[in-house]
UniProtKB/TrEMBL annotation:
Pfam families: Ras. The keyword Transmembrane helix does not apply. Keywords: Cell membrane, Cytoplasmic vesicle, GTP-binding, Hydrolase, Lipoprotein, Membrane, Nucleotide-binding, Phosphoprotein, Prenylation, Protein transport, Transport. This is small monomeric GTPase. It comes from the Eukaryota.
Length: 222
């Protein structure tokens, strides 16, 4: 895998929808957002290096790791951008939202506040990412630390939030026990590919509709 630690600099131009090509692979940028300490870095490290550190440091700025995978017969390089969740690092993380293909909104199931903050994270992402079609932008929600005994957020409550906010897939994960981590990142890829297929379909519809009645199958997401 490749890695990079970036505290300053410019993000690449937006690639959504559908990412860019990296060799034979489609390069997709996904970004992890959520409160400090919910386990964003741990999820990324579990997925890319299959390691877990019970005493990790808070992230400063952003870091990314790449992992190649195959989803439904397509070769993809997933570029996972891990951001600093602490409020004091806001100005270091927001410049990197542009160009994301999917946003993983993360909370910890044993931390109610982190769940209640999901809406602000979504808002912050929408504000700084400047996505072209906000209604169709793919999100995935992750409820992490399900290995912890004391839960403050129930699965039903989390699923209800996803529905109210427009149907994003929800995964209950544990970076520690490696529960659902691969499934969550693969779901992110599928969300992007599905959005891309919809755009292709919409473009095709508008090309063949001589009356100019462009039919787009709208899909709202959270
Ligand atoms: N029990 C348990 N602990 C976890 C899990 N994921 C992360 N942790 C622990 O929670 C703490 C914070 O994890 P990080 O991955 O650093 O959290 P973060 O979201 O990256 O935090 P910031 O970088 O400050 O935004 C660390 O001590 C991790 O070991 C998990 O699934 N289960
Ligand atoms: Mg971190």
């Amino acid at each position: 895998f490749q890695s990079c630690n970036l505290d300053t600099g410019h993000s690449p131009e937006p690639s959504w929808v559908g990412g860019m090509m990296s060799g034979k692979n489609l390069l997709l940028k996904v970004i992890l957002l959520g409160d400090g300490g919910v386990g964003k870095s741990s999820l990324m490290n579990r997925y890319v290096t299959d390691r877990f550190d019970s005493q990790s440091f808070h992230t400063i700025g952003v870091e990314f790791l790449n992992r190649d995978l195959e989803v439904d017969g397509r070769l993809v390089t997933l570029q996972i951008w891990d951001t600093a969740g602490q409020e004091r690092f806001k100005s270091l993380r927001t410049p990197f939202y542009r160009g994301a293909d999917c946003c993983l909104l993360t909370f910890a199931v044993n931390n109610l506040q982190s769940f209640q903050n999901l809406g602000s994270w979504k808002k912050e992402f929408m504000y700084y990412s400047d996505v072209k079609d906000p209604e169709r932008f793919p999100f995935v929600v992750l409820g992490n630390k399900i290995d912890m005994e004391q839960r403050e957020v129930g699965e039903d409550e989390a699923r209800a939030w996803c529905e109210e906010n427009g149907c994003c897939p929800y995964f209950e994960t544990s970076a520690k026990d490696d529960t659902n981590v691969t499934a969550a990142f693969e779901a992110a890829v599928r969300e992007v590919l599905a959005a891309e297929d919809q755009i292709d379909h919409a473009l095709l519809s508008s090309t063949i509709d001589l009356h100019g009645n462009r039919k787009t199958s709208r899909r709202s997401c959270c």
